[in-house]
Each structure stands twice: as C-alpha cells, then as structure tokens.
TrEMBL record:
Descriptive protein name: Outer membrane receptor protein involved in Fe transport
Highest taxon of source: Bacteria
Compartments in which it is found: Cell outer membrane
PROSITE patterns per UniProt: TONB_DEPENDENT_REC_3 (PS52016)
GO molecular function annotations of the record: siderophore uptake transmembrane transporter activity
Species of provenance: Sphingomonas kyeonggiensis
Length: 822
C-alpha cells in the first residue's frame, strides 16, 4: 500500500507540474511501443541496393524505436524483446543469461535466434555452451532502435538464426553536434549514468557514448550485484558514393545471475515462497557463499568469488564499408573482431529437501564416528547452533547447492561481404551475392563444489556433524559447509571456422507483386581438445571423490555443411495493406559448445521447416500485422541433467522432433492524439513428435504429443498510453499474460499461468529536459518462469512435490530517470 501511495503521489506531482513551461507547436504524441504506420525503413533480414519499408516486407518484422525503448527502459536484452509476438522471453535471471524461445522452438538461451549489432552477430553462436550472446552485450543510449525478424529469411543471411534475428542498431551522427545525458536511480540501490555525444569534425563524424552503473539488485545478495559499464567510440565519413566507419567498444561489467528459490504450493492453491524466504526479493546467494576457497584435485585452491557473478571484459572492433561503383550497384562489408573474457560464477540450488530426510539418507556415516549417536547440522559461522530439523527458519528445509565457476575466454573474427545489383528483366531484380566468414577460438573450464545451505534469504552454510549423546561433535563430514569438492570439472579448448555463401533476389514483377528468394550454403569445421577426467581422494570426507584432470586429452576434428533456402511472395493491395507468404528450410550447425563436455559424440545438424502467411495493414489510425506460422523442428537437442548428491551428475543428450502451429498478432490503435493502445498476442499449439524415452531400468515412456518445455499456448500483452499537454506528458502501462507451461517433456510439472503489470511515465520539463518514472511488476506477481532444470527435463524429479525449486519473476521495483538532450 505504501508503494502504491508513493506512485500515486509521484503521478500527482507530475500532473501538478504540467503548467506550460515552454510551447511546442503541432507536436504529435510520442511513438508507442509498436507504432510506425508502416513507413519505417527495415534493414534486417534483407540485402540489396534499394530500400524497403516495413509494410512492404515479405516476412514478419517488429521495429522498436528509441522512444519505445526509453518508455520501457528494459533491464536486460531479453526484457527488451517481450513486446515481440512469437517470442517467449524469460528474464528472471537478471541482466544476462536470459532465455528466448521463438515460434515454438524449445531451445534455451539464444539457441533459436541470432543476436546482431549493426547487422553482424554479437557472437557467431549466440548459445555457445554456457555463454549466451546477451552476457557480452548491454543496451544503452548508444542504441537507437531494435529490428526483430521472426523466421523468414533470418537463416538465409545469418548463421545460427533458425527462428529469427534481433538487430540492435547504433545511433548515427547527424549534420549537427548533439548529445544526451541520462541519470537513473532505483529503489534497489541503482545508480546509472548513460551518455552519448556526436558531432561533425571536418569531413568526419565522431561519436562517444556508453554507461556506468552500480546496483545492489532487486534480489539483494548482500553485496553489490551489478557494477560496471561500457564505452563506445565511433568515427565515420561519407563521400558521394562511399562511406566508412570504425566502431570500438569496451565492456567491463559484472552482473548477478539469479537462480531458482524454494517455493511451495499452499492449501489455497497459490504458489508462494516457503516460510522464511522472501519470494519477491530473496535469493539463495549471500555473504557466506560470496567467497569460498574450493580445494581442487591437485591440492591447489580454486578461488570462488560470487561477487564477480558474470563478469565480462570485452574489446569489440567493428569496421563497415559501403561503395556504389555504378548506379544500381552496391558493395558492402562489415567486419568485427571480439576479444572477450567471461567469468561466470553462481550459487545453484540443485535439490531441496527436509533436513530430517537428508540426515536419514546419510545415516551410514555414523559408522565412521565411533561413539556417535546422531547426525546433526550445525552452522559454519555459529558452530554451537544446532539446526532445528522441525522448524528452522520456519521451514526446516535444506538446500544442496552447487558453487559453480566457469571461465570462458573467446576470440572471434567475423566478416560479411555483399555485392548487390539492381537490374530490369521481366520486372525489377534486386540481386545480392554474399560471403560470410567466421573464426572462433574458445577455452572452457569449469569447477564446482557441493554446499549444504539452510533456507532463508542469503542462505547460510551448514556443516554435517556426528554427535554423541551429550551433543558433543565427534566428527565433521563437511569442510566449512562443503559436502563434496569437485563434483564438476572441465577443461577444453577449440577453434572453429565457418564459411557461408548466399544468393538472394527480390523480384518486383509488378508494382503490387514481388517474389523474394534465396539460397545459403554453409560449412563449419571444429577442432580442439577436451580433458578427460578421473576421481581422486585427498583423505577427508569432503575431498574423497574430487573430479579432476587425468592428464589425457581427447581430440576432435569434425566437419559439417548444410544448405538453407527460402522463398516468399508479397502482394500489396495498396500502400496501406498487403499479404505475404513464405517457406523456409533452415538448419542449425553444431559449434564448439557441442564439444566441450562430449568430445567423442559427434553432434548432429538440427534441421527445421518454417512456413508463414501474413496480413499487414498500416495507417495513421491503425496498424495491424497478423501472421500464421508453422514450425517443424527436427532433432531438437537438449540435455537431461540430473544432480546426484553422492555420485556424478547424470547428463544425457537427447533429441526430439517438434511441430508448432501458431498465430502472431501485433497492432496499434490511435483513435485520438491523447490515447493509443498497442497489443501483441501469440496463440500456438507446440508439441513433441515421436519422443520416446527409455530409463536406466529399461522402462519405456512415450511423450508423443506432449507440450514443449516452457512454451505457453497463449501470450498476450496490452499497452495503453495517454498523451497530455501537447505530448509533453505520457503515461503508459503494460499488462502481460503468460499461459501455463511445463518443466519437462513428460508434462509432469506445471508452471501456472501468470500476469504482471508495469507502469512508466515521461514528463518533458523543457525542450531538452525529460523526467521518467517506472514501476516494474506493480502487482508483485510471483509468476514462475522456470522450474528446476537440474532435476531433469525428461521426467522432472519435482513431480508431485508441493515444495520445490523454481524461479519466479523479480519483485516490484521503482526507478526514475532524468535525461537532458542538447
């Protein structure tokens, strides 16, 4: 209630302050999240010498401009995509490591879409084995707009883009010096400053921009969760028939990764956090797991530092060149070099159970402590405090957690060259021939240990001890809360080379009819080594079975190739309305990420067929885009990972076919200057086809026709907006609904439907000064975005349990920003 009163007071103050300070004649309301009347030029998902508007495209595309981005103020790359129909986005893990599932493709992370910056991949494989592309990319005020292609020709022009591509397009310098500075504060101890300035300098144009922020985090781990930023410098020049640019960006940033928390289904049928844990703001990670010295198999120490979270140090250099040697000809090249170093640390709740049941399962340990009569849990930092197995923290539960650290240095060189030619032959052809090259070098190392934790916000470490009848500790089986060192160990390195040739043609047969088609041939070679493991004992219970390197390495050298083709037709009834249809045969080649833990098992090429039919209408009053789609995904790869406290974790690679029929709706209604309504909706029927499973006992399971993992059949988003005082004040809200989903292929664990509400407001104090306010998750929804992936994705171990691990939405938060443009 206090938060709602604060919000109401803020809005009242804004309205009271709305007496004219400056006059701006004939100002139209700011664009809404999807408003564009179809006239915006689209550059993503096509190549050619000419330009095309959104209303002329033969595929589905969403354009999010800078006004919409500022009103939404997304906290992550993934959050920025929640207005895109056909995409199910999950950003409850924080600023990085989000999940996007596009058009019914059940692949985690960014495995179904490609992430681009200025038309070339941020990372060649956006799902490179624990290294999603959103971990090395940050949105700031140097980005002008986002273009999102769903399906269609994305896989023709870009590698690893079977279901779409997202292009973040940087701000360009105009004919005059200009810039902006934006300062943002948040209730979660957020302090952030963005800036961008650009100006002509002689015949050249230069720009400098970036951001820096410090943030405790809505789910506060007890230390500063997010800190750092990035800096970008750009220099460019244009001639009559040519232009060049050089862009250098340095990222040095740390963000927290929020994992699942203990949840419970209560008698009223509602799912909330267990007693003693704050479901809205709590996190398992805390000061006691912030820094842990983990013993390795050779006796050395692995310094686990969770305050680092996901730390990225990245230098990115991008060069662009365009040349028109003759009328109708265009030669373009974009080249990018990345040198990234990522450290990804996290505290993972592997399993959740009652303290009494865990002690019972360890009863055999009593034999190792002569004279002992019972096992107990004692707090590491309070060794005389006995854990109350009946009601400690109001729940009596214990988490078997994983302290996991990964180090991933990656160097990439990518180059995309295109030659386009317009000519007349039975109509107008816009023909493009392209060549894409990529070389990637990656190292991969991982080390993890098992910790025993109580269940409260910022969980505390527990020791497992044996005591006599008087309660005296006779033996301690853990080492400062560590039950087992080294339950995971990996050491791998490899290189990958990709070559792709593609040919595309846009054939305008008549002023109303156009046929677009293209073919891509891609080859990939992966070479590298993977360290083979052994188990060693260093003489203590916690070091009795450490996974470590055997000194033997397995080599791999594999080649893959596949063709992609697409064919689309577009018919324009008039400049406002049109109809399109498209069929695409796409694929996703393996990458280095497929080899880091399985060097001897050659991965397969995942293939898919995608069809779509779309109706589009754009006018000043109403924009509406409706697309029916069909996706058949062959050999979808996923890992059925199951954690085992007393043995190595089970990790099974599985494959399945899927089929999804769906409908995407996107539109904006502008009945008056003071009001507009934007909406997106996705209705789909995602199913597995022919998925059978045989467990370790030989029992067979048939999951044919079951729903795909974590993909809802219905997603809806409404964004009403009010514009007052000649557009100087805008207030908009969003209501987002996600239907029920399932954690596993057996559909045995259901994630209930949920809805959440967000508010944002903008008030132009003067021509250059604007004030923004945001309320995220106003209704404090605890909508579950995922279950426990460490309990198995085929048949989840949490099936039937009323207390379990799941990851809900991040709780309500308030932010405010002040921006000055000059």
């Amino acid at each position: 209630m206090k938060s709602l009163l604060m919000t109401s007071s803020l809005l009242a103050m804004l309205c009271a302050a709305a007496s004219p300070v400056w006059a701006q004649d004939n100002q139209a309301p700011a664009k809404t999240e999807t408003a564009d009347d179809g006239n915006d030029i689209i550059v993503t998902g096509r190549a050619g010498a000419g330009e095309r508007r959104k209303s002329e495209m033969s595929y589905s595309v969403t354009r999010i401009d800078e006004q919409a981005l500022r009103m939404q103020a997304p906290t992550s790359v993934t959050e920025a995509l929640k207005s895109v129909p056909g995409f199910w986005v999950e950003a409850s893990g924080g600023e990085a490591s989000g999940n996007v599932r596009a058009r019914g493709v059940p692949v985690d992370g960014y495995g179904s879409i490609q992430l681009l910056e200025d038309g070339i991949p941020v990372q060649h494989d956006p799902a490179l084995g624990y290294l999603n592309a959103d971990q090395v990319f940050r949105i700031d005020e140097t980005i002008e707009r986002i273009e999102v292609v769903r399906g269609g020709p994305a896989s023709l022009f870009y590698s690893n883009a079977p279901a779409g591509a997202v292009n973040f397009i940087p701000r360009q310098v105009g004919d005059h010096a200009e810039g902006l500075v934006k300062v943002m504060l948040g209730a979660d101890s957020l302090y952030r400053t963005d800036f961008w300035v650009g100006a002509p300098v002689g015949d050249w144009k230069v720009a400098l921009g970036g951001f820096y922020r410090s943030e405790g985090g809505v789910r506060d781990p007890g230390f500063t969760a997010n800190r750092g930023g990035q800096l970008r410098a750009t220099i460019s020049r244009e001639w009559e028939r040519a232009k060049v640019s050089l862009d250098v960006k340095r990222v040095d940033d740390i963000v927290a990764f929020y994992t699942g928390i203990p949840m419970r289904t209560y008698a009223d049928g509602k799912i909330r956090a267990v007693p003693g844990f704050d479901g809205h703001k709590g996190t398992v990670a805390g000061p006691e797991t912030e820094r842990v010295k983990m013993v390795m198999g050779d006796g050395s120490i692995y310094d686990f530092d969770n305050s680092v979270g996901t730390q990225v140090k990245r230098t990115q250099i991008t060069g662009k060149f365009e040349f028109e040697p003759w009328d109708g000809w265009k030669i373009a090249n974009t080249t990018r070099y990345n040198d990234s170093w990522t450290q990804r640390n996290g505290v993972y709740p592997n399993t959740l159970q009652s303290a009494s049941s865990l002690l019972t399962s360890q009863a055999a340990l009593l034999a190792q402590a002569p004279g002992a009569t019972a096992l107990q849990f004692r707090y590491v930092t309070s060794p005389n405090q006995v854990f109350d197995t009946a009601n400690q923290n109001g729940n009596g539960l214990v988490i078997v957690g994983g302290l996991r650290g990964l180090t991933l240095p990656v160097k990439e060189f990518m180059s995309d060259t295109r030659i386009s030619r317009q000519f007349e032959m039975g109509g107008t052809h816009d023909l493009t021939f392209g060549y894409y090259f990529a070389n990637i070098d990656e190292d991969f190392s991982r080390y993890s240990s098992t910790a025993l934790l109580d269940v409260q916000d910022n969980a505390r470490l527990l020791n497992l001890v044996a005591v006599d009848g008087a309660g005296r500790v006779l033996k301690t089986f853990t080492d400062n809360g560590i039950y087992k060192y080294g339950y995971e160990w990996e050491d791998a390195r490899g290189s990958q080379t990709t070559h792709a040739l593609y040919l595309a043609d846009e054939w305008q047969i008549t002023p109303n009819l156009r046929i677009d088609g293209g073919l891509r041939w891609e080859t990939m070679r992966a070479r590298g080594t993977v360290g083979l493991k052994k188990t060693v004992s260093l003489g203590t219970p916690a070091t009795s079975s450490i996974s470590t390197g055997s000194g033997v390495y397995a080599n791999y050298d594999s080649n893959f190739n596949r063709a992609t083709w697409t064919l689309g037709v577009d018919y324009q009834f008039n400049r406002h309305a049109g109809l399109f249809a498209r069929y695409t045969s796409a694929n996703r080649l393996p990458s280095l990420g497929n080899f880091v833990t399985s060097p001897t098992a050659k991965p397969i090429i995942q293939t898919m067929d995608l069809g779509e039919v779309g109706l589009k209408y754009a006018s000043p009053l109403l924009d509406i885009y409706a697309t029916g789609f069909w996706t058949k995904y062959n050999n979808v790869g996923f890992t059925n990972y199951r954690f085992d406290l007393n043995g190595p974790a089970v990790s099974e690679a599985r494959y399945a076919d899927t089929q999804t029929f769906g409908l995407e709706l996107e539109g904006t209604l502008r009945p008056a200057r003071w009001f507009d309504l934007s909406a997106t909706a996705t209705l789909q029927d995602p199913k597995y086809k022919g998925l059978t499973y045989v467990d370790a006992t030989g029992k067979s399971f048939d999951f044919d026709g079951n729903r795909l993992i974590r993909i809802p059949t219905m997603s809806v988003r409404f964004v009403p907006g009010i514009n007052l005082f000649d557009g100087r004040f805008r207030l908009q809200g969003s209501w987002e609904y996600e239907g029920k989903r399932y954690v596993d292929t057996a559909n045995s664990v259901r994630l209930p439907a949920y809805a959440t509400v967000n508010l944002s407001a903008r008030f132009d104090v003067s021509k250059g000064l604007s004030l923004y306010g945001y309320v995220d998750n106003l209704n404090n929804s605890l909508g579950l975005t995922e279950g426990n992936p460490r309990a198995g994705e085929l048949m989840n171990g949490d099936a039937g349990a009323n207390t379990f691990i799941a990851r809900p939405l991040i709780g309500r938060n308030f932010r405010a920003a002040l921006m000055y443009r000059f």
